[in-house]
C-alpha cells in the first residue's frame, strides 16, 4: 500500500517523515501546488514520489490512504474528492471550516465504507494517553472541571483566529478525555488589530456540574501550555512546557462528611502524595501513522474518527458565533439542526 | 488620636499590629463579640485597650478612626453606626454585601465629611505599586488585556462563594491599575457541593477592545496567583508565588506596519529584554495604616476610597447575577439603577 | 519540670515559644546578658520568668533542662556549668567552637548521666524524616553520593565563616542520613573582604566509593537550598525552596548487566515514575522540644546526641584546617587524636 | 574553497549541515571509517562528496580546511597529518587526549602558518557572547567566583570520564570569560562502576582571590546546566535549561564601607533590579563555521585558537592527575614542564 500526502507546508513534511518508516507502507507520494515544496521534500527524502496533479493520486490504485495537510478552507473540497475516489482519508486538524462541511465528510466516508481519521495529534502523546489511562482506571474519580491555558507570543494566522489555531488542540484533548457531549459554548475574544481574534476565552458547558474552560492568546509574553483536571479523588496537572514530569497527579481533594451542605458539615482537605508517571516518549505522529495504516488494513476504527473531528468543529463554530454575539451561550443542539 | 479595631478574627490582629506602631496613633482600642478573642489580643499586645460594647467606641471622643474587620454581612450596619458617630471609617474588603449597602455607606461618609477607606490590601504591595508606576510612565503602552488566575485548594467560606472570597483581590488590583469603568460582567461558576460556587470564571468587559478575565478556584491542586497584563509596548507578568522577581516586564510585542490589516501587512514580533524591577518590601498593611491616619489628619483622600470599594462590589454583584443567569452579560449601568 | 533558655537573640525566642506549649513543661525561665531582650520576651510571652544571673538557673531545683542559644564561642563555658549543676543540656548548633570543647561536653554529660542534645533542627523537619524513612526502607538502595548547595546573599557573621554558618545544617543532615563515619575532609574557600571565608566548597570523603560535597556561599544572587542523593535504586532531590513537593524521589538509575565493566557491558538507564511524598508539616522545633522533655522524663537518648554534635564539629574543624592548608585532605583520625 | 569533515558520528553531521550553507564554501567532502555513515550523510545531504581514504582529503588542492570530529584519541594523529598537508584545521573539543599532543598540534600549526581552531561550541552561543559583552563593559565588575553545575542521567562514555565529557564545556566557557591563567587544579571523582569516573568536582585556583568550581555528574536524576558568576558589581546566572531568559543579571552585591574589615564596618547589601537581556538565537555552530572560513580567507585568528584548546586540555589533564592523587592540588606550571 502507498500513502499520499497532500500539502507540504509546515505539517506535511512531518507526515512524510513518519509514513516513510511506517510498517506496511510501500511508498509515499506527495503533492503540493508549489513545485518548490515538492523539490525540497525530494531533497530531504529522496525515496518519495511526487505528482503534478491531484488526479494522479485519486486514480493511482496503489494509493490506499491520503493524508491532507492543506489549509483548512480546502479540506472539504479535497477530502470529498479523496473519499469519492474510494480512498481512506486522514485530515489535519481542524477537520473542516464548518460543521456542515465536516458532516458531509463524515457521511461520504460512511457511504464509501472507508476510514476517516482526523489528526488530533495530542491524543497520541504519552502525556494524554497516560491521563486517559488514569481516568479510565477510576483513580481520578469524577471530573469536576477541565481548565486549559495555551498562550504565547504567536504568529497571526491569515485564515483563522486564535480559537481555530490554538483551542483546537485543547478541545480535542478535552473531547478525548471527558468523553461526554457538551451542551453549549460561550466565548469572548478580542481582535486588537482589526483582523481575527488574537485572544479568547471559551467556556464549554456540560449538562452536569462540569465546566471546561480555555484561554488562548497570541499576545502573551510567556509561553504557557497547561491543563488542570479536577477530579473528585485526585487532580491532574499537565504542563507541556516541563522538560520532564509533564503530568503530575495530586492526591489532593475535598471530602464532605455528613448530610448537610459542605458549609455546615465537616469539610476535610486531603493533601497526599504527588506522583509523576513515566511517559512513553514515542512521537505522537508515529503512533498516528501506524494506527491509520492498521485501520486501513484491518478495518478498525481510528481513535479520532470523523465524528470526533466534527464535534470539535462544532465547538469552534459555536465559539465563533458566541464571540459575534457578545459572549451569548450557544446551544450545540441548535447548531446541529442548522 | 486613637484607632479602634472591630472584629478580631483572621485579619483584625494584623490591623492591630500595624496601627499600634503607626505614627500619630496614641492608642488602639479593640472590640469583638467573643471575649476570648479580646483576651488573646491583650496577651499578644498588652498595650491595647478592649471595650465591651460598640457603644463605647462610638462615644469615645479620643477615637478618631475605626477599622471594621468583621464578616461582610455586618459591614453595613456597623459602618453606618461608625459614620453616624462622625468617625472616620476603614472597611475590610469587600466593602459591603451589596452595591446598595456600599452606596449608602459612600453617601453617609460624604454627608458627614469623614474619610471612608477600603482595605484593598494588594494595592499597597510593592508589586502593584511598581506596576502602577510602570503603567503611568507610559512604558507599557495601552492595556490590551488583563488576565488573572488565583487558584488553590481552598477553605470553603460559610458566607461567600469563591468570587467574593478570591476575585475581590484581583478585581481591586484591576480597578486600581486600569482606572477605566467597565461596562459589563459575565461569569460562570459551579458549586460542586450544593453550596456556594467553588470555582468561577469572570469576564469584565470595557467599552474599548479591552477584556479583563479572572479564574478563581478552591479546587486546584496547585496554588497559582498570576496576573498577565498585555500592553501595546511591553507586557507584565506578576507572579505572587515567586519568592523574588515577582514582577517581570517583557519588552515583547506585536507591531503592525502598513495601513492594511495585521494579516496583510508585515507583522513584526519584538522579543527584547526582560526586566524584573526591585520591589519595595514594606508590608502593605503598614502603608495602609499610615495612609488612613494621614487622611484623617490632613484631609487627604485615600488611595482606595468608598467609590472604589463600591465599584468592586458592583462587579461582584453583577458576577453573582450573571452566574445565576447562566453566564449572561450584566451591564453595570442597569445594576446601578437598581 | 521547668526549662531554662539562655540567650534571646535570633533563635532563643523560637525555643521559648515552643517550650512554653510543650507538654510536661511547667514553666520557662529566660536569661540574657541584655536586659532589653528579657523585657521584650516578657512582653511577647508574659508567662515566662526571667532571672538576672546564670547562677539563679543553675541553683533552681525546679529547672530540669537548659537550652543554650548563645554565640558558639560561649557554648563550652555555659554548657560545662549547666552540666556541672547536673542539669540536662540542649545546645544550639554548632555544638561548640572546637572538637576539644565538644568532647569535653560529651564526657561531662556522660559522667553526670544527663541528657546532652544538640539542636540540629533540620533533622526534625518532615522532609528529612521522610528521606530517612525512605533510606531505611531500602527503596533508595546504597547511597552513591550526597550533594548539597546552600547559597544566597547572606549576612556576614562576625564570629564565623560561611562554613560554620551554613554548612553546619547540611553536614548535620548528611550525618543523620548517611550514618557512616567519614574518613577525611577537604575544603577550599575564599574571603573576598579580608575577614572570614564568604564562600566555600567542602568534600567529605568516606572509606567507600561515597563522596559528599557541599557548596556554601554568602555571595549568591539567588537563594538555593538543594540536596541531591544518588542511590543505586532511586534518587532523591530535596529542594527546600519549593513551596510544596520539597522531596522528590526519582525511579531513575543505571543498571549494569554482565560481568564486564560498565563500558563494555550493556548499560541500561531506567527512567521511571517520580514521586513526591506528602510531608508532615509539624514545626521541627516543636518535635525537638517534645523529644528533649521526653528524654529527660524517660531517660531516652535524643536523636542528635553529643556524639553527633561532636562529629559535625570535627568536620567543620577539619574544613577550616583544610582551607588554611590550600585544600589539603585532612584525615579525621589525626584530628581526633589531637 | 572546499571544507572536509572527518568523522560522521554524533557531531560530524552538524558540522556538515552548517558548512554546506556557509558563504565561501563551494563544497563539503566527508570521510568516515564506516561506509554506512557516509551513505547516510549522502542521503541526508545529497550535495556532499565522500571519499574512501584520508589521503584523498590531504591531497585535494581544493580542500582548504578540515574539521575533525572523530574520537579524541585520534585527534592528534589525524590533526598532525592535516597540518602536515598544509591545510587549516578545526578540531572538536576537547582538542587532544593530552597536553603534550595539544602542544604538538599548536606548534605544527604555527610552523605551517595555518589556522588551528577548536570547536568550543558554547563560546559562540548568544548566552555566552552576551555574558562576555557584559563582563567587558565593566558592569559586572571584578569576578569573585565562577560556579558551574552540569549534571544529568548521562550516557557513559567508552573512552572518557565525566570530566572530559562534560566539564570540557564549562572549562571552555570559564577560559573564555575569565581570560586569566589559572595556577592550579584539584579534583575528586568517583567511579561507581569500576570504569571511568562518573561524577566529579573540580576546583580551578587562580593567583587571585578567585575560585572556579565545577560539578559534573552522569548520575543525577535531574538535568541541571547552571553557571553562577559573582561579580563585585553585579551577578550573573546562566541557566541553559530555561526555555527563555537563560541569562539573568542581578544588581545585587555587597558593599563594604569604612576602612576596617567587613565584619566591623558597615556591610550593605544591595538588592536591585534583575535584567534578562535578549539573546541572539543564531546557532552557535553556524557562527563557528563562518568564523573558520573567515579566518582561512582573511588570515584572522579564531576566537578559540590552539592555545585556548591546549589550556583547557591542561586543566583536564591536571584534574585526572588530581583525582588519581586523592584530590591533591596540581600546579599547572609543573604540568607544562612535563
Indicate the topology.
Four copies of one chain form a homotetramer.
Chain A (H helix, E strand, L loop, with lengths): L1 E5 L5 H9 L6 E5 L3 H10 L4 E2 L3 H6 L3 E6 L6 H10 L3 E5 L6 H14 L3 E4 L6 H12 L5 E11 L8 H17 L5 E7 L8 E7 L5 E7 L1 E13 L3 E5 L7 E11 L8 E11 L7 H15 L7 H19 L5 E2 H6 L1
Parallel strand pairs in A: 1-2, 1-4, 2-3, 4-5, 5-6, 7-10
Antiparallel strand pairs in A: 7-11, 8-9, 8-15, 9-10, 11-12, 12-13, 13-14
In brief:
Chain A has 10 helices and 15 strands.
Structure description:
The structure is a homotetramer. Chain A is α/β, with parallel strands linked by helices. Chain A folds into 2 domains: about 1-120 and about 285-305, NAD(P)-binding Rossmann-like Domain (Rossmann fold, 3-Layer(aba) Sandwich); about 125-280 and about 315-330, Dihydrodipicolinate Reductase, domain 2 (2-Layer Sandwich), CATH 3.30.360.10. The first copy, chain A, has helices at about 10-20, 35-45, 55-60, 75-85, 100-110, 125-135, 160-180, 285-300, 305-325, 330-335, and strands at about 1-5, 25-30, 50, 65-70, 90, 115-120, 145-155, 185-190, 200-205, 210-215, 220-230, 235-240, 245-255, 265-275, 330. In chain A, the strands form 2 sheets. Chain A has a 9-stranded mixed sheet. Chain A has a 6-stranded parallel sheet with strand order 3-2-1-4-5-6, with helices on both faces. In chain A, helix 4 (about 75-85) runs parallel beside helix 5 (about 100-110) and helix 5 runs antiparallel to helix 9 (about 305-325).
Amino acid at each position: 500500500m502507498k500513502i499520499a500526502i497532500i500539502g507540504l507546508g509546515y505539517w506535511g513534511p512531518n507526515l512524510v517523515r513518519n509514513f516513510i518508516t511506517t510498517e506496511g507502507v510501500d511508498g509515499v507520494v506527495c503533492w503540493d501546488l508549489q513545485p518548490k515544496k515538492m523539490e525540497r521534500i525530494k531533497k530531504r527524502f529522496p525515496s518519495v514520489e511526487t505528482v503534478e496533479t491531484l488526479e494522479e493520486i485519486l486514480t493511482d490504485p496503489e494509493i490506499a490512504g491520503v493524508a491532507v495537510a492543506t489549509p483548512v478552507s480546502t479540506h472539504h473540497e479535497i477530502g470529498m474528492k479523496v473519499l469519492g475516489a474510494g480512498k481512506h482519508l486522514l485530515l489535519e486538524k481542524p477537520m473542516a471550516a464548518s460543521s456542515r462541511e465536516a458532516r458531509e465528510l463524515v457521511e461520504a466516508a460512511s457511504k464509501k465504507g472507508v476510514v476517516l481519521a482526523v489528526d488530533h495529534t495530542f491524543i497520541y502523546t504519552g502525556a494524554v494517553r497516560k491521563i486517559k489511562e488514569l481516568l479510565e482506571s477510576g483513580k481520578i474519580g469524577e471530573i469536576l472541571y477541565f481548565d486549559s491555558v495555551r498562550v504565547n507570543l504567536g504568529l497571526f494566522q491569515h485564515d483563522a483566529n486564535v480559537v481555530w489555531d490554538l483551542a483546537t488542540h485543547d478541545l480535542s484533548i478535552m473531547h478525548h478525555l471527558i468523553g461526554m457531549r457538551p451542551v453549549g459554548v460561550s466565548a469572548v475574544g478580542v481582535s486588537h488589530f482589526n483582523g481575527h481574534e488574537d485572544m479568547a476565552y471559551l467556556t464549554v458547558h456540560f449538562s452536569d456540574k462540569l465546566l471546561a474552560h480555555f484561554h488562548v492568546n497570541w499576545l502573551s509574553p510567556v509561553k504557557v501550555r497547561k491543563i488542570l483536571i479536577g477530579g473528585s479523588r485526585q487532580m491532574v496537572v499537565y504542563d507541556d512546557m516541563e522538560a520532564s514530569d509533564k503530568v503530575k497527579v495530586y492526591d489532593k481533594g475535598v471530602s464532605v462528611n455528613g448530610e448537610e451542605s459542605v458549609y455546615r458539615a465537616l469539610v476535610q482537605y486531603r493533601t497526599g502524595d504527588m506522583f509523576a508517571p513515566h511517559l512513553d516518549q514515542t512521537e505522537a505522529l508515529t503512533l498516528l501513522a501506524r494506527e491509520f495504516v492498521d485501520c486501513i488494513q484491518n478495518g478498525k476504527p481510528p481513535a479520532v474518527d470523523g465524528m470526533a473531528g466534527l464535534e470539535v468543529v462544532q465547538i469552534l463554530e459555536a465559539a465563533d458565533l458566541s464571540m459575534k454575539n457578545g459572549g451569548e451561550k450557544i446551544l450545540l443542539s441548535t447548531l446541529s439542526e442548522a
